[in-house]
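User: tokens in, sequence out, please.
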């Protein structure tokens, strides 16, 4: 139990005469006790001394001095023999009493100071305790408010995520446990809590073809701390397949160690279906444009064949009839070539295959030859040590058709189109090898504002004839093949034009990457004019690999 002294400041507000009387009363009590208790008479100041200290503690210096002075007087009057009284003037006794008066007064001063210090310390402790209690109460109130605000924010976040079809997940690496919100389970077609917290348990509902990629993406984020972003499919209990998009970010502790990965999960099935629908729509549009070009290309030779057959029916000269028949056969072979080129790329299997891009390019140019010729556009096709790539030939045909069609529309009053195929590397990763296909035209060029938006869906500068999906589809298909497309354009007078640089990785084994064809720089198609090299600065250089 803690020993606590009475408060020395309890009587400080009382008047000093009253405190002096209280000190004198204390002296009378102490001397009275000494007088009536016979053994104490031998030590007349034994009880008097503590009373002085008591008076100094409680009654201040006025009470202490009054108590000491009265103690000396009463001792001298009552407790000393007649021959030792002050009136006699015995010096030794006077010195003794004076010394008591002096010492008791000094001790009273010290005691009073200690009393004040003790009171100040007690007041300081009380203030500190009071401040601590106030701070604790404020902290408790703040914690309550913070908890309520956090709960409200969590509820709003859950409402927002649920409205947008998104869920929260967190992978605790220390506990190796995956925490998921209820919306995550609903997105995957399950009831909340249906899957355990084991991170590998989630793979049970993932499409078998996407499990390995999902697991590798999560492990890459765990090991390197890079941002996590992956799209994969999940199989619902009713047999339907849904597309999910998951994004996450690694969180570190004060030592920089990765402690957990937190992210969101969203159902992007509708978006995927919309993208596929737009891809199919643009593919149909491209097929329509190609069909028109093919029809135009076939119509001219068929008209020529009809005319030649008519001339054969009129002539009686066998040599002349043979000459007309040979020309008709050439025209029919030309029709057959166009037809085979068209069927070749529209009867492709649904899996990538090793392809020479030059074959696809020549087939597309054959179908556009009529439009190029009628528009007065000179075409130059350069191929340098071509290597095979693994791709979808029909999708390559769609990419090349879109870019060539855009180049034709950019040059309504003739121009030059230079196409170059050459081995190169990805400018983002020099270790990734492949083929770079460059389309450069001397058309009108594009403004920077248009260049920033050319890959947006439904953005078009051809309000009457364009769908705004052509270059968006090109970018999507290139990305699907793991490639990259870049754009440069110039509006300078006499040096305008646009360049699209398309990179496609080989995507095949090393033993197939060495497949090459002979250099065919300047290969010319039947009936095609070969353009001279474009003027300097007409568009960015095409020589960079």
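Assistant: Sequence out:
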């Amino acid at each position: 139990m803690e020993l606590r002294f009475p408060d020395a400041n309890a009587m400080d507000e009382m008047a000093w005469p009253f405190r002096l009387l209280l000190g004198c009363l204390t002296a009378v009590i102490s001397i009275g006790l000494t007088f009536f208790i016979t053994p104490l008479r031998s030590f007349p100041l034994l009880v008097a001394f503590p009373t002085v200290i008591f008076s100094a503690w409680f009654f201040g210096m006025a009470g202490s001095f009054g108590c000491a002075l009265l103690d000396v007087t009463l001792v001298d009057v009552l407790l000393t023999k007649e021959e030792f009284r002050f009136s006699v003037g015995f010096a030794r006794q006077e010195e003794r009493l004076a010394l008591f008066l002096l010492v008791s007064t000094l001790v009273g001063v010290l005691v009073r100071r200690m009393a004040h210090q003790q009171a100040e310390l007690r007041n300081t402790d009380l203030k500190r305790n009071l401040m601590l209690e106030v701070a604790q109460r404020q902290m408790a109130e703040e914690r309550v408010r913070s908890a309520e605000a956090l709960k409200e924010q969590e509820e709003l976040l859950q409402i927002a995520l649920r409205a947008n079809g998104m869920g929260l997940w967190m992978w605790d690496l220390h506990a190796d446990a995956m925490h998921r919100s209820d919306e995550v389970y609903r997105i995957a077609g399950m009831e909340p809590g249906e899957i355990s917290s084991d991170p590998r348990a989630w793979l049970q509902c993932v499409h078998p073809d996407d499990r390995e990629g999902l697991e590798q993406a999560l492990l890459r984020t765990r090991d390197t701390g890079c941002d996590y972003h992956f799209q994969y499919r999940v199989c619902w209990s009713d047999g339907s397949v849904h597309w999910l998009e998951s994004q996450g970010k690694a969180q570190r502790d004060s030592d920089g160690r990765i402690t957990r990965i937190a992210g969101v999960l969203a159902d992007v099935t509708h978006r995927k279906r919309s993208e596929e629908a737009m891809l199919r729509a643009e593919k149909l549009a491209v097929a329509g444009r190609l069909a028109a070009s093919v029809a135009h290309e076939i119509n001219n030779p068929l008209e020529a064949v009809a005319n030649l057959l008519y001339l054969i029916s009129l002539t009686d000269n066998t040599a002349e009839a043979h000459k007309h028949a040979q020309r008709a056969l050439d025209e029919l072979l030309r029709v057959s070539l166009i037809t085979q080129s068209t069927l070749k790329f529209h009867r492709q299997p649904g899996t990538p295959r090793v392809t020479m891009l030059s074959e696809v390019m020549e087939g597309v140019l054959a179908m556009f030859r009529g439009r190029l010729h009628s528009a007065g556009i000179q075409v130059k096709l350069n191929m340098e040590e071509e290597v095979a790539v693994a791709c979808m030939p029909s999708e390559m045909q769609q990419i090349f058709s879109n870019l060539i069609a855009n180049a034709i529309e950019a040059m309504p009053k003739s121009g030059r189109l230079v196409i170059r195929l050459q081995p190169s590397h990805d400018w983002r990763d020099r270790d990734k090898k492949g083929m770079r296909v460059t389309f450069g035209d001397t058309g009108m060029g594009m403004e920077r504002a248009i260049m920033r938006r050319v890959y947006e869906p439904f953005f078009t500068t051809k309000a009457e004839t364009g769908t705004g999906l052509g270059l968006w589809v090109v970018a999507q298909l290139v990305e699907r093949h793991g490639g990259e497309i870049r754009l440069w354009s110039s509006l300078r007078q006499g040096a305008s034009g646009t360049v699209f640089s398309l990179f496609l990785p080989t995507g095949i084994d090393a033993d197939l990457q060495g497949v090459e064809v002979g250099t065919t720089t300047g290969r010319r198609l039947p009936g095609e004019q070969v353009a001279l090299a474009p003027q300097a600065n007409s568009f960015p250089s095409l020589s960079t690999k």
